Amino acid sequence: MNQVQTRYAARQTPRYTSYPTAPHFHPGVGAAAFRSWLAQLAPDEPLSLYLHVPFCRQLCWYCGCHMMVANRDERVTAYARLLEDELQILARSLPPKPRLAHIHWGGGSPSILSEPDFARLMERIGQLFTLDPDCEVAMEVDPRDLGPDQARAMARAGVNRASLGVQDFSPHVQQKINRIQPYEQVALAADALRAAGIKRLNFDLMYGLPGQSVADVERTTHRAADLSPDRMAVFGYAHVPWMKKHQRMIDEAELPGTAERCAEAEVAEEVLLARGYERIGLDHFARPDDPLAIAQRRGQLRRNFQGYTTDQSPLLGLGASAISALPHGYAQNVARLPDYAAAIEMGEPATCRGIALSEDDHLRRAIIERLMCNFEADLHAACADHGVSPETLDQSREQLAALAQDGLAELNGDRVQVTELGRRYVRHIAACFDAYLNAAPQRHSRAV
After folding, report:
1. Which of 244, 182, 175, 245 is CA-nearest to residue 209?
2. For residue 41, how many C-alpha atoms fall within 13 Å in the half-sphere facing its CB?
3. What is the 3-state secondary structure of 221-285?
4. With contact defined as beta carbons under 8 Å apart, do 47 and 101 qualify?
5. Residue 227: CB partners within 8 Å, gap ≥ 6?
């Protein structure tokens, strides 16, 4: 690993699951703006739902999500009622029974919902929306809590894709992140899901964890591939204790350094490519026949708050802290559970902040997404599509020139091409088009 790679790998950069990124949301976007944006959606346009369940049975010390430990089942049931009410609140601002192309249950651990609560919520969604025949219903699952009965209940309710958090199979790493989850437990969960009819499985792996070595990552990746999930995501652990105070339980001295983090990411990629997976964007991998791989080959890959996706629909976020991504902008619900409950009980959207998109934002969002998904972008075509003068991007071109000198990108006329070396550092290339980044610097995770 040379000095240039080390320098870029250690730098903090946004993940660009949205643009503008969440640190630039502001309280000027509230419930009234959100309702107005919903009312302007095209009546025949398919939508997507993201439902956030911020509860887990146990706190994993690496977690960067908005979540809390569910010390009483009654709290989870009460929250399910709030989600049901929020669905009704959103439906009032939408055309009757709009189409749904995707449903994603995230968390936290949405599999913590009881069978009756989950079935009732899915039934309510079916009453308020029209699910497309091929609607994907994906659910994030904690393998430690999943058994055959729950898997069958999920399938009966309509779930057809499940995402399992694996992270690392090494017992010493699991001990240091407070997530004891043997390989056999994950294998049983995968078997239960498939036996219930949920055949499409995703696994999440992590590198950069405390006490983790390159050999740990290599062994974990092989064992994960042995279970044949359709997709795998390989994320770098983001150590942000200034945002997530529980991460202070992790000893920073035990975190791998920059060179070792890069080596861990590289070995995971090498294993997955050798095992027949295709690279998808920055950090995802999929079987060649998976819709994600097909979308990438067709140039139709997209990026949202769940990472890489085939979803091209406006996204409605429900639950505490959830974010909606609409043509007009982003709207985020309040994160504190009492505040979220108060808004929903008053019959109002729980929107507390967001950002309306300008034409310049739309332009830069389109370019950043193409770079993150396709590793190339045509700046002239993007400017023409958005009715913006090409000179708008002059500063971005200057920033790109420095990255091109370091071998991360090529700029041929108005076409930006990410090099093979630059793929791992594509977030830096995308950052050249981020008009907010230098104006209001924020702390972010490492690029690798």
Report:
1. 175
2. 30
3. HHHHHHCCCCEEEEEECCCCCCCCHHHHHCCHHHCCCHHHHHHHHHHHHHHHHHCCCEEECCCEE
4. yes
5. 186, 187, 190, 201, 203
Residue 208: what residue type?
A: G
Total domains in the chain come to 2
Q: Does residue 311 sit in the same domain as residue 365?
A: no
Q: What three-state secondary structure class fits 9? A: helix
Peptide bond into 30 cis (omega under 30): no
Question: Final residue of a domain: which of 291, 318, 345?
Answer: 318
Choose one of 263, 292, 318: the last residue of a domain: 318
Cα gap 169→181, rounded to integer Å: 7
Q: How long is the chain? A: 448
CATH number of the domain at 431, please.
1.10.10.920
d(CA 95, CA 84): 18
Same domain, 139 and 90: yes
- In this prediction the pTM is 0.93
CA–CA distance, 61 with 250 (Å, rounded to integer): 7
On whether both 390 and 302 belong to a single domain, the answer is: no
372's CB contacts (< 8 A; 6+ apart) are: 16, 281, 282, 303, 426, 427, 430
Same domain, 262 and 391: no
Establish if 79 belongs to a structural domain.
yes
Averaged pLDDT, groups of 10, the chain, 448 residues long: 72 91 96 96 95 94 86 93 98 95 95 96 98 97 94 97 97 96 97 98 97 98 98 94 89 93 96 98 96 96 94 96 97 97 97 97 97 96 93 94 94 94 94 87 56
Please write the tens of the pLDDT for every residue from 20-52: 999 999 999 999 999 999 999 999 999 999 999
Question: Position of tokens 């902040």?
Answer: 353
